[in-house]
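Something for you to look into today, if you have time. Could you write out one complete protein record for me, on any chain you like? The space below this message is yours for that.
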Amino acid sequence: MKPILLVRNDPYESFGVALPSLARAGADVVTVNMPAGATLPPLDDVAAVITFGGTVNVDQADRHTYLATVRTYAREAVDRGIPYLGICLGSQLLARALDVPVLKGPKEVGFEPVRSLPAAKEDPLLSFLRDDEHVMQWHEDTHELPPGATLLVTGDRVQVQAYRVGDLAWGVQFHFEVDAPELDWWLDVADAEIDIRAVWGKSAEEIRAEAAPYVAAQEERGREIFRRFAGVARKSDARRTASLT
């Protein structure tokens, strides 16, 4: 199988459980650091694309020019049937690539409840989710469901928590990739730069306390989603290879 591409959209991104989970699933990976000026590889050279989160809005391409590049790349992946998985900003980039506006919405941070919908029960990535889960959130932007997409997971304050476009593209608003070390890093960085409680409604200490009963399940959930996505990528890559022979 060709490697799975991991797109880094923020300096404060360590990919959480993604790298070890994909390795255990037998997948090779290649990473690109877009804020540092990296170039995206041709889509013909990768089996699938995973686009991670960031602290910017998808339409700030005037200040962060790579956003337009990643957005176009996401649209091309969908159009060509190359598996795509967008997390938080990556999910919003997918929606924006499909011409859906991304706007300010209710702020969500820490571990918040979401509900798995009936459509998720047959989904290749998310069918194992329980009806109610507490997931790691850190965002203030949201969007409507893209036309023709299937809503898989919803929440009380933000409706679009996870969706699928066609058979091979997913957007997930919550940070299922985050493990305990990455969460600690994010909180340390944010705590040094802003008053987290004043901006987000919860302090770093409150978020850490909130995470304690959920972080083990959070990490296991992330490992399972990446394992399943590697399987989707492997099957898709095999089909594309066979079509060329």
